[in-house]
Design goal:
The protein has 22 helices and seven strands. It has 578 residues and is α+β, with helices and mostly antiparallel strands. Strands 3-4-5-7-6 form a five-stranded antiparallel β-sheet. A hairpin with a 2-residue loop joins strand 4 and strand 5 (513-521).
């Protein structure tokens, strides 16, 4: 049954709360340092792996910082359907790491640009149809992808960035990173909120204290770098010849774009839940707004001929957990700092000069906590064998992607060898199978009106009789259906008297239970969220009105209730035991 939502006391400022500017700036700086370093590092790794020129690398460094910074600012704003209205830390679009290097090596920046622009159409279509895909991009799939990102991104960074210079002691080279990691882990293990807030700066500081005496911090690069520097490389343009290379790589990019979309849905959902003191239902209008910014950022990356960035990172959850600040103002400061550093080359050099073992130590902590957040997303709520199978098999297949790639040749290697693609597609395939194999749903299409209550009751009675439900279970199902309808009436705003809303009720049998789903074309007229009202309803709270009574009855007779809000659509799903 339902319990009162527990408060997350570590959240000091929620997204819409006014955070003191000094605290917001200090929180932004703590995120800015590791996020900027990883963004620049990943971009450099991809460009150098492809064999492109230093001039192009200069262009990429400038543009990825500018696009990512603008994307983080847009995420905090809700301009119509654009923006999530929350602090969203953005970075490199991780699933594109290998295929971007491949496209650059085969056809240069022009080919990469055209592939990104065309494949971004997939993101646009999927975002518009997000409500229809709710049974595919489930909480389990989202959590699995977050875990796969955590276990795949860090090995990629370490294997390509933590390389000791020739002739230098490996132990001495790794010493700053080990010291930083030990310091960060020791702080994490302490139950001391004050120190947890400063875990990232302390981790970097300890690493630098060890690195400087060993001569591993190259200060000469900083001295020789000018204060301001704009890239010499011009806009590469789009390759519109649609050559054989384009058509060969397009399916790979479309597939990877599907994976990155799935990752973004999971990331934005996880961030939403972590941004509030009290656990609340995800408002998928916020997720859709975040996906729109993500799509715009990817499109602009393609048009600029740079790498795909401005992707939401679930690591935002870890940063919020460390600082305790989820205020939108942090995202604005973070975005401004990221845009400014694109031109201030000396400041960028100071960050990039931090030894890679120290940066890797920071990300061991961040991605370790990120894996835990993904697991919490998967196993929140009722545990069942289906969820366990999807999670376990997907993770194992994803981690085995490198082995599978050895059985293939050519372009396919870059697709089959991608941990996130293989694991994510496995999770989607198993989810689709469970949906298709268990699809025995009955549907009812009516108007959302009090006059429709008898139709809903007859619909549920017919289902119960068909599946031989006992009288107790049948009455429980009827009560749940009635109270959901009454709750929807209470949540509606005051609109035109002749306004009609269509409702689709679907019920499907489960093992010893039934899932009732009601979809309403709401035009955002349904203001509240039934799931949140149930979470905040304490056992001793007085019944102030009929709406409270409906929520109380639902919490008693339904084993679970979820209310998902999309732009123009509300979806309420209830599980009722037989």
């Amino acid at each position: 049954m339902f319990r009162r939502a527990q408060a997350r006391h570590e959240i000091r400022y929620e997204p819409d709360e006014k955070c003191p500017p000094l605290l917001a700036i200090s929180s932004a700086l703590q995120i800015f340092i590791p996020n900027t370093i990883s963004l620049v590092m990943l971009a450099a790794l991809v460009v150098r792996a492809s064999g492109e020129s230093e001039a192009y690398l200069s262009w990429v460094t400038f543009t990825v910082l500018a696009v990512t910074g603008a994307g983080m600012i847009l995420q905090t704003l809700q301009l119509g359907h654009l923006g999530s209205g929350r602090l969203i830390v953005s970075n490199f679009n991780v699933p594109f790491l290998a295929v971007s290097a491949l496209a650059l090596s085969v056809g240069g920046p022009g080919l990469l640009a055209s592939l990104i622009v065309v494949s971004t159409l997939v993101q646009t279509v999927l975002t518009l149809r997000l409500a229809s895909l709710r049974r595919i991009f489930t909480q389990t799939v989202s959590g699995v992808v977050v875990m796969l990102v955590a276990v795949s991104a860090l090995p990629f960074i370490i294997s390509r960035a933590v390389i000791p210079p020739e002739g230098e002691s490996t132990v001495l080279f790794l010493a700053p990173g080990m010291a930083a990691l030990v310091a960060g882990v020791l702080i994490s293990l302490q139950d001391a909120p004050f120190w947890r807030v400063w875990i990232l700066p302390v981790t970097v500081a300890v690493g630098m204290i060890v690195a400087v005496p060993l001569g591993l911090y190259d200060a000469d690069v900083i001295v020789n770098t000018p204060w301001l520097l704009l890239p010499d490389f011009g806009w590469p343009g789009l390759d519109l010849t649609f050559s054989a290379d384009f058509w060969a790589l397009l399916p790979v990019f479309v597939f990877v774009n599907l994976t990155s979309f799935m990752k973004a849905v999971g990331d934005l959902s996880v961030i939403y839940r972590a941004s509030y003191r009290n656990q609340s239902a995800v408002d998928f209008r916020s997720v859709q707004g975040g996906l729109n910014v993500f799509g715009v950022g990817t499109l602009f990356s393609g048009l600029l001929g740079t790498l795909p960035v401005a992707a939401p990172w679930a690591a935002t959850v870890v940063y919020i957990g460390f600082t305790g600040v989820a205020a939108k103002s942090v995202g604005i400061y973070l975005g401004v700092l990221t845009i400014l550093v694109a031109s201030f080359s000396k400041l960028l050099a100071i960050l990039v000069a931090i030894p890679s073992p120290v940066v890797s130590a920071v990300y061991v902590i961040i991605f370790g906590m990120l894996f835990v957040e993904g697991a919490k997303t998967v196993f929140t709520g009722q545990f069942d064998q289906k969820k366990a199978t999807i999670t376990g098999v997907s993770i194992v297949l994803g981690l085995s992607a490198g082995t599978f790639s050895g059985f293939f040749e050519g372009i396919t290697i870059h697709l089959v060898g991608n941990t996130i693609v293989i694991g994510g597609m496995a999770a989607i395939a198993m989810t689709l199978f469970t949906e298709i194999s268990g699809f025995r749903a009955s549907k009812l299409r009516i108007d959302l009106a009090e006059s429709s209550l008898p139709d809903v009751d007859d619909f549920l009675c017919q289902f119960a009789d068909k599946h031989s439900w006992p009288d107790e279970g049948k009455n429980r199902l009827r009560l749940v259906g009635e109270e959901v309808m009454l709750s929807l009436f209470d949540e509606e705003d005051d609109g035109p008297a002749d306004r009609k809303r269509r409702l689709v009720a679907t019920i499907r049998p489960e093992s010893g239970s039934a899932e009732l789903e009601i979809v309403v074309a709401s035009d955002d007229a349904i203001q509240g969220n039934i799931e949140n009202r149930m979470a905040y309803l304490g056992p001793d709270q007085a019944l102030e009105d009929e709406q409270q009574l409906s929520v109380r009855i639902l919490s008693h007779y339904a084993s679970s209730v979820h209310h998902r809000k999309y732009y123009g659509i509300d979806i309420i799903s209830c599980r009722v035991e037989k």
